[in-house]
Amino acid sequence: MSSSLPSQRAAPGPNDEDCVVRVPVMCLAEASRGAADADRLDLLVNHPAVEVLTVDPLSWRALAVVYDTVGRLDAASALLAAVDSGGYVLTGQPALYAGLAGGGPIIVF
Fold it and tell me: pTM (2 decimals)?
């Protein structure tokens, strides 16, 4: 999410005005491997506040470097998307990003 918020306001949800949740297609593919209910992924993808992202072919070198650091293509694509859009990676697996200098744009849930 790349919006700026006043300090007294809670974090935006997917129905907040001007809020966009960007999900890399590689993350969706990885999530589908372990999803017991693929319908939930369809709900996510079809939500009006969700943008599904692909990797820019011209960014393949950056993807390769980040992949080498984090060890998974889905995690690497999420990090590149966050950096490119000025957003954050929301993750339940912060250890994937432990090798990042300065911790990176990571929010742990």
Answer: 0.79
